[in-house]
Amino acid sequence: MSPESKVAIVTGASRGIGAAIARRLARDGMRVLINFAGRARDAEALVREIEKAGGLAITAQADVSDPAAVVRMFDAADAAYGGVDVLVNNAGVMKLATLAETDDQLFDSQIAINLKGTFNTLREAARRLRDGGRIINLSSSVVGLYQPTYAAYAATKAGVEAMTHVLAKELRGRSITVNAVAPGPTATRLFLDGKPQELIDRLAKLAPLERLGEPEDIAAAVSFLAGPDGAWINGQTLRANGGII
Quick one: pLDDT band at residue 1, thresholds 50, 70, 90? Predict the structure, then answer.
């Protein structure tokens, strides 16, 4: 199936890495469903931007932690485009605290969105994705770095990687690949806000390439896995982090 005939759902796509992924897949020729939880204005602005560049996109509000909302999101893609070929699981939250100081709300909210939300969309994709499709989950290079204060977040992303490997095997015979992309420090508003410049500069030097990742770097990795050149990559985690680990 050529990129021009594919339909992609990108969760958490109203800004940051998700928006960069939506732009890139649209530029690759895919028709894109831009999922958002609470940033409708940003999502609609991204649709207009993609359409102005000659692409096709729609929005769909859905909290991925709600299984019924995920079903409705897939229904919206079916109604607009006739099916789904690519799922990119980008929606997530990151709340940091030492393990001793992590309260139940902080832990549960990350499990609900990062882990259960990914499970919800993977389950629906396993049932409804067209044969020959692609699933790309967003993990994180904190799985491997294991820094202090990242216990709950890293645990959710380790779970995402585990589901990635298992689902790749469960979809045997359907020519659907399932992979994960694990960014390192990336220059998004979410990452930069609240950090002093000294800390940002120090983090930028950690990777041998001595810079922060850009959202477009991650989008390029997703584009590769979603496109024809990524057809033989399956059940893998691609650490798009400039060599930080």
Answer: very low
Show me where the domains of the chain are located: 3-238
Q: Can you give the length of the chain in residues?
A: 245
3 state SS of 125: helix
pLDDT of 3 > 80? The answer is no
User: Would you list the DSSP string of 75-108?
Assistant: HHHHHHHS---EEEE---------GGG--HHHHH
C-alpha distance across the termini of the chain, in Å:
35
Distances (CA, A) of 66 to 34, 62, 71, 113: 17, 8, 9, 9
Phi, psi of 36 (to 5 degrees): -145, 160
Q: Tell me the residue ranges of DSSP E strands in 37-81.
A: 56-61
Q: Could you tell me where the beta strands, DSSP code E, fall in the chain? A: 7-10, 31-36, 56-61, 86-89, 134-138, 177-181, 237-238
Numbers of helices and strands, H then E, in the chain: 10, 7
3-state secondary structure of 243: coil
Residue 5: the pLDDT is: 81
Q: Which two tokens stand for residue 164?
A: 């990635």
Q: What angle do CA 38, 43, 47 make, to 5 degrees?
A: 160
pLDDT at 104 over 80: yes
Write out the two tokens for 92: 């997530």
For 110-135, the pLDDT digits (tens) are 999 999 999 999 999 999 999 999 99
Q: Which residues are catalytic?
A: 153
- The architecture of the domain spanning 3-238 is 3-Layer(aba) Sandwich (3.40)
